[in-house]
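Q: My collaborator sent me two sequences in one message, no labels, and asked for predicted structures for both. Can we handle them in order? The first one she listed is below.
A: Yes, handling them in the order given. First sequence, followed by its structure tokens:
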Amino acid sequence: MEPTTTTPPEPRSRRGRRPHGKVRRRLAGALALGIGLLSVGALYSVVEPAPQTAVAQAADAATIAKGQDLYNNACITCHGANLQGVQDRGPSLVGVGDAAVYFQVSSGRMPLARQEAQAMRKPPTQTFDPHTQEGADNLAALGAFVQANGGGPQLPAATGEALRGDDPARGGELFRLNCASCHNFTGRGGALSSGKFAPSLDPANEDQIYAAMLTGPQNMPKFSDAQLSPQEKKDIIAYIKSVSDGNNDVGGSGLGGIGPTSEGVIAFVVGLAAIVGFAMWLGAKQ
């Protein structure tokens, strides 16, 4: 008699349990992801300085709005409502940047006293006097408005003596290569064509010199950072200030700073005049 084997009951099909397991895993993953996102969001809200950014943006908007009011009161007649310029009155300001605004307005060249070949330097108006806090703030606001609407070269963050480089000797070499043909070897200026001239650099402050190199006012060329690096510009400023403060007359008297051979030229002229005078005296005596 053959032994009988009892067949154990079949276990529940695994196929019936897999869908429930997948659903659970998906729900757990979604829950973990949600908790992670909520945690990151909470951490970001704590770390992110959103209020400071909003305040900064609001301050920038207020500065630009103030600059627009100043522009409408002082500049719109000659430069147009959209900075496009007005024929026979003033050029377009699109692309000049806040550097040009600072140079022209802080040096008193703008607004023009009258239409002429050369914009003459004069004391700035009280509204834009850079020596007062109110004037400096107004200058910054006007520049911000022109920059926001037209773009262009911007002034560096450094100001004043911080714009002087630490190598005036190198600055002197660069100045003689790029600037002396118009401004003279010591920045005393010189005549140009059509009633224009390169002005003396003595009254210009560091910010104005840097802005002039960036923007190229009048006949002056523009010097981008590819032509003269920011450090080279600062070295040039250091050289200009070293020869304009009256403490760099190595040969003695500066004699007006008309060049490195000024004393020799004057000695030659005086000596030649003395010789001619002596010769005439001898001839008259005979």
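Q: And the one she listed second?
A: Here it is, processed independently of the first:
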Amino acid sequence: MQTFNKAVAEQILRNEVDTRTLLSEYPEYKDEVLLEINAISSRGRSNLIQHSLRKYTSSATIAKNKIVKSGFNQTTINTFLPHIIKARFAIYLIEQLQFAVSSETSAGPVRFNLWDGFILQRLLFREKLVRKPVSLILFRVFWKLIINPKILMPLVNKQGIYCFYSKPLIKQLSALIGDRECLEIAAGDGTLTGFLNDNGTPCTATDDYSWAHYISYPAHVVRADAKTALNRYAPKVVICSWPVPGNPYEKHVFHSGSVEMYIVIGTRDPAITGDFDSYYNAKDFDMELNEELSRLILPPSEDNAVYIFTRK
């Protein structure tokens, strides 16, 4: 049970602490509220607002009375103050939802409303547009609450982001790679390599920096085109995420004698990702479309694909 300072409790009861400050100081209660609102949302959006307001207003009123009548007893504060904090969170979130819905318009630039932006930032990013491995369980819960899910990818595509990686996907990719030398080509901002490294799978990210007008390349992404990188590192495993359609670099993977496995994260559509001519002409490799891994790419889509090429 969390312990609260009595003076802080008095300030919260007098509404002297703004909700944004509460959100930053007690994030664990924010996550609880989102889960609770999601449970209520299964009854429909009008019920979401009605039931949520009733639930949290009643809970906060009871909690406040308990604390005041106890003379701000420490145990009572610790037990009931979280109900008041969660009520503040819930009412704030519902206000943002109502504002977002009422302010939607077809005019002007496309952008996230406050509700969607709030959830997606917490769910997909560490900070700003820095991605994080996504909890598949939380994604399935909160994705249903997004008002405009279709605008997510068009907006982040402009920043060189073409998919999000779930935690189970990273774990299974690490298992596939094992302890073999791994190289990522056309790595962009090196997000995938970073996730693999954090998961205990050493991988080297490389890119020719040709997309510098879209992507900010971090220091850990080695500047090298695919052919140069393959010759320099002689990897046993190569990975590439969202290769450019009809690109000139994937063919070098299949001509590299060191490569035992090539993993491609992309789509089933040759117009969107991948050099499918090279895929079909890779006579020394068996090609597999791994449906299980494909389902671990986010957002979910029937077009998502993970291809695994294994040397015969």
